[in-house]
Amino acid sequence: MTQSPIFLRPIYKEKIWGGTALHDTFGYDIPSEKTGECWAISAHPKGTSTVISGEYKGKTLAELWEHHRELFGGIEGDRFPLLTKMIDANKATSIQVNPDDYYAGEKENGELGKTQCWYIIDCKDNAEIVYGHTARTKTELVTMINSGDWDGLLRKMKIRPGDFYYVPSGTIHALGEGTLVLETEQSSDISYRVYDYDRSDQKGNTRELHLGQVINVTTVPHVDGFIDESTESRKGITIKTFVQAEYFSVYRWEINGTAELSQDAPFMLCSVIEGNGILACEGRSSELKKGDHFLLPDDMPDFTIEGACTLIVSHI
């Protein structure tokens, strides 16, 4: 049977720093006005996407991974490797750092580490991210954290829509207030909080910090994640390559007209962040609209996308 795109229904997560941008921008049916994350393409045990239509309608992505590994090129592994999120940082997120595979596997019940990246969909004027730190040694890192010298420790960078940041494990990071991001990452939910602005949750409790783990996993001195961006234009499409790295490659497809495309990875994860189009393959077509998320399985024949739309695409 000819493979077709597999459209997925997301999971939503409420966060102390969340807002309504996921509804306002993409029309999602969010659970509250504090919705921080849309787990758009996920097979993680804490939230797995569900197939919306077609042959596998009603099955979760985790079930497809378990029972239909042919859709993913038969690649090995006990868990689906990637996770695509949309993040609404209505308020600044906590300052945090993620472990690598080895540390997470040893200390977090075999969980994957978390290398991730951000594509800035939208942000308010003068929005910032935290990306890295200034400490030159572990001792200096400990001293600056213990003294609360956050202005001295944290590297802040101004951002604009369309910016891309690669955030390897070990990188201290945070999204600033008024930022809407598509995040591609390893399928992991392990982050260690460095600082949280002394905020309280709904019950009045300050949120836990994880300073022991932070000291253990933070890369010192900070090293910027290497990205080697390139752009290729041809009939109907401009493809920007943001990163081709150990855990994932990430691209932006800007469709304007009719683009002829092929799926040459074990599978591809696709998110429509702007516009509309039609994906056609061997006589069948699927409507694409802003906010859609879908998977292109292995053995997907060559296809076209017609319209005016922008997609963020990733693969292992």
Automatic annotation (TrEMBL):
The keyword Cell membrane is annotated on this UniProt entry: no
Record domain Mannose-6-phosphate isomerase cupin: where: 238-316
All residue ranges annotated as the Phosphomannose isomerase type I catalytic domain in the record: 7-119
Catalytic activity: D-mannose 6-phosphate = D-fructose 6-phosphate
Assigned EC number: 5.3.1.8
Keywords attached to this entry: Isomerase, Metal-binding, Zinc
InterPro entries: Carb_Metab_Reg_Kinase/Isom (IPR051804), Man6P_Isoase-1 (IPR001250), Man6P_isomerase_Firm_short (IPR014628), MPI_cupin_dom (IPR049071), PMI_typeI_cat (IPR046457), RmlC-like_jellyroll (IPR014710), RmlC_Cupin_sf (IPR011051)
UniProt xrefs under NCBIfam families: manA
Family (UniProt): Belongs to the mannose-6-phosphate isomerase type 1 family.
Protein's recorded name: Mannose-6-phosphate isomerase
